[in-house]
Amino acid sequence: MAAALSSIAQHRSYSSHLHPNLYTYSSKPAHDHMPFSFIMMSSAKSSSRLRSGSGRLMIRSATTKPAKSPAEEDWKIKREVLLQKRVRSVDVKEALRLQKENNFVILDVRPEAEFKEAHPPGAINVQIYRLIKEWTAWDIARRAAFAFFGIFSGTEENPEFLQSVESQLSKDTKVIVACTAGGTMRPTQNLPEGQQSRSLIAAYLLVLNGYANIYHLEGGLYTWFKEGLPVVSEEESSGTQESDS
Questions:
Q1: Which of 222, 16, 239, 40 is nearest to 128 (CA)?
Q2: Structure confidence by residue, pLDDT tens digits, 208-239
């Protein structure tokens, strides 16, 4: 249970090494820690006085950068690969244009339920995370650990992600990978390595497995919906089919 709690605590801090709807929040502290270094000014002659309480004790504060977490180090490596593979980010309006004019495919990596609720027309869905399916002792412990943090629908990496993508998209397909938040590879003052997300992690997996034309949706589908771009839902599609019949 302790191991599961530790695993979920790290999972919550940065989603998802790939999570989802907790998605892409940084685990970096809001401010730098300020440890104190204690410097005792003494000599061999005064060491006995220090022990007796008569020595001088000086306290100096030093601002240091906090050490990066394993999650941050892992994202740094993935980001470098994405940059080396020339994965380019596009905004939502450019993504729509590329889809219409250049036969780009939008790959929505959100959970299936979110995809069914609303998604860009023509998008395909392969979730990069899925609900924990098994009921082994370890899976029960993970569910309990998620519940400890108030998460009652714990997720795990989808082991069939790449297989599912390959069954629908050839390696030369022009793909725009999308999730809710989007994340970014662009550095900022507070986030020098950008911000990871499910779509960026999915893009990383795809370029490692031979996909040569991978793009990333900057701003995510949240921005797509906010901008009022075209949206369809599975409910609307099924309702239309029933009325036609």
A1: 16
A2: 999 999 999 999 999 999 999 999 998 655 55
Residue 35 predicted with pLDDT over 50: no
SS3 129: strand
Which one from 107, 123, 179, 217 is the annotated catalytic residue? 179
6-10, 158-162, 181-185: least confident range = 6-10
Asked if 179 is an active-site residue, the reply is yes
- Alpha helices, H only, the chain: 2-14, 47-51, 70-84, 92-101, 112-117, 137-148, 161-168, 198-208, 220-226, 234-244
The pLDDT assigned to 9 comes to 45
Beta carbons within 8 Å of 201's beta carbon, 6+ residues apart:
16, 17, 18, 78, 128
3-class state of residue 91 by DSSP? coil
